Amino acid sequence: MSTAHRKCSNKGVSSNEWLRRQMRDIYVKQAGKENYRCRSAFKLLQIDEKYRILKPGHVVIDCGAAPGSWCQVAAQKVNAYGQDACQPRGTVIGIDLQSMAPIDGVHLLPLCDFTSEATQHRVREILKNKKADVLLSDMAPAATGVKSHNHEAIVTLCFSVLTFSLSVLKEGGTIVCKLWSGGDQPRLEKAMRAICDSVRVVKPSASRGDSAEIFLMGKGFHGFRTP
Ligand SMILES: C[S@@+](CC[C@H](N)C(=O)[O-])C[C@H]1O[C@@H](n2cnc3c(N)ncnc32)[C@H](O)[C@@H]1O
């Protein structure tokens, strides 16, 4: 099992079962062919294909970035390494608890806990006075055998993303947050609706049908409005 694939396999299935499934999976094969670090790339590609959230020149913050396939996709879409001289050059910042190999044009913050003030301070330093257009979170806590605990832990991470959005996201910006569905989903959706014009639940086809994984996407960020 490659390091990259091990890092994407945080799902609580046995490693034999996980390996068998990976070998049958079309997105695993496609990720290998297209040089993406893991199959998750296709989730972001499919979300972007449908909702057009990533544009050249955009500033993107990717929370829970290891091994780096969302950063790879974002870097291509926002022109982060100036690959298209006719388009504005974007910025991608990727943060993860794990180590990550460098990605062209991407600011990586490996071995960093996104929820810590020190990490968030480093992100603001990279942004200088700019704000982000898109805040992504594919963060997943280490899964336990207890679904409700996993749900609570991932919802807590999502709330930390919403709180961070208040200080770093541009008016009109977009938030995409991975979640394992469960009882706290309505509370999270309500919180997102308070700061974004529209909120929808997204399940790209690359997200396995038998997984509780969904993505909440908030568009038209405006922060809290005073009545
Ligand atoms: C599903 S993986 C992300 C895959 C990634 N989007 C990609 O395409 O390569 C989830 C990641 O969330 C990270 N994570 C979980 N909690 C975190 C936290 N508090 N701060 C930063 N990263 C976190 C894990 O270390 C793990 O690498």
Automatic annotation (TrEMBL):
Transmembrane segments annotated in the record for this chain: none
Pfam families xref list: FtsJ
Gene Ontology molecular function: any one: rRNA (uridine-2'-O-)-methyltransferase activity
Principal subcellular localization: mitochondrion
Subcellular location: Mitochondrion
Active site per the UniProt annotation: K178 (proton acceptor)
Keyword field: Methyltransferase, Mitochondrion, rRNA processing, S-adenosyl-L-methionine, Transferase, Transit peptide
Domain Ribosomal RNA methyltransferase FtsJ, residue spans: 36-221
A single GO cellular-component term on record: mitochondrial matrix
Protein's GO biological process: mitochondrial large ribosomal subunit assembly
Family to which the UniProt record says this protein belongs: Belongs to the class I-like SAM-binding methyltransferase superfamily. RNA methyltransferase RlmE family.
PANTHER family: RIBOSOMAL RNA METHYLTRANSFERASE (PTHR10920), RRNA METHYLTRANSFERASE 2, MITOCHONDRIAL (PTHR10920:SF18)
Protein name: rRNA methyltransferase 2, mitochondrial
Species the sequence originates in: Elysia crispata (lettuce slug)
Lineage: Eukaryota, Metazoa, Spiralia, Lophotrochozoa, Mollusca
